[in-house]
Amino acid sequence: MEAITKDNAGFFTQQLFLIGTYNEDGAPNFAPISWISFTLGPPRCLVISINGTTRKKQTTLNIERTGLLSATIVTPDLLPFVEQRNKSTQREGILMPYEAEQGKVLNVPLLKGAKWSYECKVIETVHIGGCDTHFAAFENVNVQEDIQKLDFIDLREIDPVIYSPNNYYTVGKHIGKIGDYSK
């Protein structure tokens, strides 16, 4: 492993999402983004940072034009689709078929069959350096019925993909609830 320096953050983990927008021609556009967090609000928001150091990405242009986006939690079955949407990993002539559907509340594309997705309206964008950071308020949450029936949000059942520099991971075992370790 290379020596860790201030210019190479080294260790961080981020949940991977597919950000869905519509292009000007109405075609759905999905981009894998891992620089995402959450604010408690009010309103409750996803915080999505998109790097555009050399030029603005299509997703950023679409968000600027419409103020709307969807955010789909990436699960292992979606990784081939994710890699076809990433400029550094896509391969010519190899496209994973997918079906998009209209959002239930907002005019955003959703991936049909995804376990969990959000429909969001951008309420503020902050430009810092080469990044655009969008604060996107939740307008709707789409959750598969089997996930909705769980007793708690069990990450083992949702199976979200976690990204850490150039690697994908999934969640391991459940080790307790908040408060279990202070007894």
Question: Taking strands numbered 1, 2, ... along the chain, how are they ordered across the largest sheet?
Answer: 3-2-6-9-10-5-4
The CATH architecture: Roll
Number of distinct beta strands: 12
CATH class: Mainly Beta
Q: Briefly note the structural class of the backbone.
A: mainly beta
Q: State Rg.
A: 17 Å
- Per the CATH scheme, the topology name is Pnp Oxidase, Chain A
Number of domains: 1
**Spatial gap, N to C terminus:** 39 Å
Report a brief summary of the structure:
The chain has 183 residues and is mostly beta strands.
Describe the model.
There is one protein chain. This protein is mostly beta strands. The protein has a single domain, classed as Pnp Oxidase, Chain A. 13% of the residues lie in helices and 38% in strands. The chain contains 4 helices and 12 strands; from the N terminus they run βββββαβαββββααββ. It has helices at residues 58-66, 79-85, 145-148, 155-158; strands spanning 14-15, 17-22, 28-33, 36-39, 45-51, 68-73, 100-102, 109-111, 116-128, 131-143, 162-164, 167-169. Strands 3-2-6-9-10-5-4 form a 7-stranded antiparallel sheet. The radius of gyration is 17 Å and the shape is globular.
